[in-house]
């Protein structure tokens, strides 16, 4: 085993020193990627009520837009999935890149980076190597990150409301934010939920096995949390990252694999997974019985009340998605949401869990329909 590890390290070292011309996008930040394709890019700070400092990216208009036009650009916020960041909406060239497609369709595009991700690892008083920095879950992200970002988007854009496009975990954030802070229903014009997430109880394939494993090992996980505290789980190692980029660029078809792997998984320099955020039901975080009693007054966490959500919701669901399934939609989400707010369920043949943001036909299947729905509701919207 140790011999195999040595061979892998030596191989990676060889590739790191090899003279291989890599795809320049593999080493770019999200802002660099936006500018590389000729779009305007802005970066804004967002301070949450509990002291975290988030980076919010903005593409105020498309490549060929007339900046002096009197037409309106509705604000739209793209919210990433777990262990991702804004980069997941920037991986493809403009004809199939979600952020660019929406900018060219007449939107004022904002991209969120939740706490702990590559571009949002600052705090007003804590450092990222402090255990206390990592003591948060999805509950805190919904309670503090999302409202602060929504308010900042409205401040920057001058709009009275924002459209929310969530992918995977980003859909859960949309539901949880409006359920926990119902006053924000008046600030969100609609939820476009890609790969909508509910309880996780109706996953299939290897994802279902992972949930079962977590439930089985939960006592061990609880002990781990108490013994070692909260911390980052990342791949922030140049010895691995840069050789992987070079390796991707010398194998057939590896350039595309390289872009997806390095930005989606590394982002581009680290991948953060808050292990406290893993859950199976649509409840607040299930810490452990003692901590639950301290926080909630009972040994079990309270459920989120999705009946408080009062904005139009459009669901996009791939029929090859093992994580966001039709059974999950029918048995969990549609039962928790009020019928009048669910406007449409769009089933996309062949889409898996990440195709919504990286498929070559995501414009046709996902983002052109979103633009059409919004355009039918917004008068005087820019054409491009």
Structure description:
The structure is a single chain. This protein is globular. The chain is an alpha/beta fold and 384 residues long. It has helices at 2-17, 30-36, 98-104, 138-157, 169-180, 205-216, 218-228, 238-248, 254-266, 289-296, 326-336, 355-358, 362-375; strands at 42-47, 52-59, 75-79, 108-111, 122-123, 162-167, 188-194, 313-318, 342-348. α1 (2-17) crosses α8, α4 packs across α5 (169-180) and α8 runs antiparallel to α9 (254-266). The termini are far apart. Residues 1-13, 15-21 and 265-280 have low confidence and may be disordered.
Our Rg estimate from Cα atoms comes to 21 Å
Listing every helix as H and every strand as E from the N terminus to the C terminus, the arrangement reads HHEEEHEEHEHEHHHHHEHEHH
Total strand segments: 9
Q: Mean pLDDT score, rounded?
A: 83
Distance N to C terminus = 56 Å
Give the amount of beta strand, in percent.
Answer: 5-15%
